[in-house]
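Protein Record: Sequence and Backbone Structure Tokens
======================================================

Structure line: whole-number tokens from a learned vocabulary of local backbone shapes, matched to residues.

Purpose: to set a sequence beside its fold so the mapping can be learned.

___
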Amino acid sequence: MEQPVFAQIMEAVEADILTGAYKVDDLIISTNQIARLYNVNPATAVKAVAKLTDAGVLYKRRGIGMCVAAGAKEQIMARRRDLFLRQTIAEILAEARTLGMTVDELVEVIRQQGSDIRNSDIQEESAHER
């Protein structure tokens, strides 16, 4: 099931916070800019920002705009980690069962792919240092 547009916008803003594009107290783009960027009705952008504000991810700085709240990154990470553990892992385990995979096989695949990711990260860091 596809997410509503406002939820997609919320995820995009959260992703920018997680990657460091927005830091604590940084001003985010305006709802009008969001509406133009995503080609949506401004009310949709307002709804996304309002929900992020209600969740404590953003706060309003009077006369300036919406800013990233202290602890927003940690809050987003905790919520997404919980969702990942409850939902994604459950889906992976169900699919593994359907495919006749054992937990040990699944863990080995995860270890191998994790090792591949770590090795590519090390190579990338090494290339940046040169």
Notes: The chain has a mean pLDDT of 91.
